[in-house]
Each structure stands twice: as structure tokens, then as C-alpha cells.
Design brief:
The protein is mainly alpha-helical and about 110 residues long. It has a single domain, classed as Cytochrome Bc1 Complex, Chain D, domain 2 (Orthogonal Bundle). The chain is built from six helices and no strands. The longest helix is centred in the last third of the chain and has 12 residues. The model has no long low-confidence stretch (mean pLDDT about 90). The chain binds heme C (HEC). Heme C binds next to helix 4, helix 5 and helix 6.
């Protein structure tokens, strides 16, 4: 996967307070092809995802289901209706839970 030095630097600076393992997992799982923490790429910025679901107790389960099965409709105004691809079983359930926890904690 290719990243500009600037994007990587920004990501590293932002993530310094988080586990580098989570970022590695997101990279390895292919998520960063369409997402970044700070800005919309193809999918919404992950910090915007965290903000949207802040205080929503059902969000974790809903987002795990979304990452597993894919889908669209929650970010149409941001993405123009591009769907999120399904990640199960390509990415294990445990890794998907880790990634969703990570995104929601941003
Ligand atoms: C091919 C591009 C692409 C890839 C790769 C991708 N996503 Fe997404 N993602 C999207 C799009 C587009 C949306 C917006 C979907 C919508 O409108 O509901 C999205 C939405 C999301 C959301 C918010 C879902 C919601 O319903 O609010 C989460 C969380 C997320 N992605 C996590 C991930 C994770 C974790 C990975 C890696 C395992 C990943 N994405 C990989 C395109 C992608």
C-alpha cells in the first residue's frame, strides 16, 4: 500500500497516543485504502465515525455488523453512496471487533 510521507506523518502523529498495533491491523486489513483518521478518502474519516456514534450504546454492534457484511446509506452525503465492502471472513471477527473499538475510541 502506498502512502505519501505527509499522510504517514500525519497519521503517525495522530496515532502516537494509540496503540500502533491497531493502526498496523487497519493497514494489514486494507481499511486504509478507503479510510483515514482525519479526512474522508473513499469512506468517511474515522474520527467523524467516532463523533457520529458518540454516546450510542448500540453503535459497536451495528458497526461490527457493517464491517462484516458491508453496506451503504449511513454516509451518503459524504461518500455519494459508495458502499463499504464486506470484510467477513477475510478479516477475523476478533480483528473486526478490535478495529471497531479502535475507531469508536478516536
Ligand atoms: C473500498 C473502500 C473501503 C474500504 C477498503 C473500507 N471501507 Fe469502511 N467505509 C467505506 C464507505 C464507502 C463507508 C460509508 C458507508 C455508508 O455510507 O454507510 C464506510 C464506512 C465505515 C464505517 C462506518 C459505518 C457506518 O455504518 O456508520 C466504519 C466503522 C468502517 N467503514 C470501518 C472500516 C474498516 C474497519 C475497514 C477495514 C476492515 C474498512 N472500513 C474498509 C469504504 C471502505
Amino acid at each position: 500500500m502506498k502512502y505519501s510521507a505527509l499522510a504517514l506523518g500525519t497519521a503517525l502523529a495522530f496515532f502516537s497516543q494509540f496503540s500502533a498495533a491497531n493502526l498496523d491491523l487497519a493497514k494489514k486489513s486494507g481499511c486504509l485504502a478507503c479510510h483515514s483518521v482525519e479526512a474522508k478518502v473513499v469512506g468517511p474519516a474515522w474520527k467523524d465515525v467516532a463523533a457520529k456514534y458518540k454516546g450510542d450504546d448500540g453503535a459497536k454492534a451495528a458497526l461490527i455488523a457493517k464491517v462484516k457484511a458491508g453496506g451503504k446509506g449511513n454516509w451518503t452525503d459524504v461518500t455519494g453512496g459508495v458502499p463499504m465492502p464486506p470484510y467477513s471472513p477475510r478479516v477475523s471477527d476478533a480483528d473486526i471487533e478490535t478495529l471497531v473499538d479502535f475507531v469508536l475510541a478516536l
